[in-house]
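User: Fold both of these, please.

Assistant: Here is the first one.
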Amino acid sequence: MNSPAVVSRESLILVYDADCGFCRWSVATLLDRDELGALEPMTIGEADSRGLLDSIDPADRARSAHVVMPDGQVLSGGSAVPALAARLPGAVPIRALARVAPRLVDVAYRTIAANRMRISRLVPAGAKRRADLRLAERRRLSTP
């Protein structure tokens, strides 16, 4: 098991709801902290069309973010937090919290996800525009 200070260099796909401003802003914020370039953002629609979410019930695909691990395993919602935190050097406190209180992390994630459209209204339009530019730039850089 990795210690809290160890950061994984294996990349993963971060699948998000492109129709949610808060979701786009959150993913762009994670990308800004992704010093190793370990996160590949992908919309739910694109991941679904590539068959990456086949293990997730279609009715559940848009309910949360997902992480596709290098081996193809899909983690959803709060269960994805430890994998994300393992790729972000500054996320030691989040990794520690996810290890000692995984249920708390899951409840917090589900609460935010259930209210994400309301939360989206609180994210300033300028922040959403910057997030969209950041996502477009990362996608441009990751396209062969």
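And the second sequence with its predicted structure:
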Amino acid sequence: WLLFSGNGGPQASVSNLWDQGGFLPHGFTGLVMMMAIIMFSFGGLELVGITAAEADNPEQSITKATNQGIYRILIFYIGSLAVLLSLMPTSTSLPYSATTRRWSV
């Protein structure tokens, strides 16, 4: 909403995803650290195996739950990262809200 409504600030643009070095401007270290958090957050996916013992059709329910987990990671994590990276370029040193309110950061 912020990106397409124009309320994200003057620097909000989809081109922020590939300008100033792209998605990983400082290498894969940030990606590796992010994946550790994502794996921890979706650690509850092992409950699918526990649920399978109680399901009527475990073959179908496990497949469906696993696929939904993958799609949710893509939508919620990768999608939200794309939106946030579109709002501000990676070279921005100050938060936009701090500069508009004249806070000292």
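The chain has a mean pLDDT of 73.
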